[in-house]
Design a protein that fits this description.
single chain, mainly alpha, Dehydroquinate synthase-like, alpha domain, 3-stranded antiparallel beta sheet, two-stranded parallel ribbon, about 60% helix
């Protein structure tokens, strides 16, 4: 990730998605560093890459250890990943790189968090800016609402099916929210991601 010189710009951006996700849920200082160093990372400048390659696995390992200790489920590290998995299923594997779907999942979770009043507009704008500057796709695929509903990870054990998603209150302040599918559809509609078919 970010080390091989033969990586395409698209592959570099996809690799950055996991680093952005980890910083967004776990380390405000590292996230601020990413904001200042994105251009250097995309250009694969050695000092920036060296710091990211050192800090990212340390932070991920810390968070995974906290997940085990605190028995957290879902993990904050699932921010964007569950929704990204839905997008992979909708469009089929191959249209996007994995990191690109994680980026789209973070984009979608940020829109949802802002709509629900969990994440402030200024915090949401920061995350969106980083995703854009990282070169990640931001346009969600247009798919029929029924197809989105079929694939959303709804907990069907309760009286009303809800999604358990990690949203951000702010950078490094994740929280798990139970969200009705209708709220997700509303956010998708605002994003132009619902087709009439």
């Amino acid at each position: 990730m970010l080390q091989a010189q033969q990586e395409s710009p698209r592959e570099v951006s996809a690799g950055l998605a996991e680093i952005i996700k980890c910083a967004a849920v776990g380390d405000a200082e590292f996230f601020a560093w990413l904001e200042s160093q994105l251009d250097a990372l995309r250009a694969r400048e050695s000092a920036a890459v060296a710091h990211a390659v050192q800090r990212f696995p340390e932070l991920r390992a810390q968070m995974e250890a906290q997940d085990r200790q605190l028995q957290r489920a879902p993990s904050p590290l699932s921010f964007g990943s569950r929704l990204g998995g839905v997008i992979e299923s909708l469009v089929g594997y191959g249209q996007y790189l994995h990191g690109e779907t994680v980026g789209l999942g973070m984009w979608m979770a940020t829109a949802l968090g802002e709509d629900l009043g969990v994440q402030s507009p200024s915090s949401a704008a920061r995350l969106r800016d980083v995703l854009v500057r990282a070169g990640l796709p931001t346009r969600l695929p247009r798919v029929a609402a029924a197809r989105w509903l079929d694939l959303l990870p709804v907990d069907r054990t309760g009286p009303q099916g809800m999604l358990e998603l990690v949203l951000l209150e702010d950078v490094a302040r994740p929280q798990v929210r139970r969200v009705p599918p209708s709220a997700v559809l509303e956010a998708l509609d605002k994003a132009g991601a619902l087709s009439s078919g």
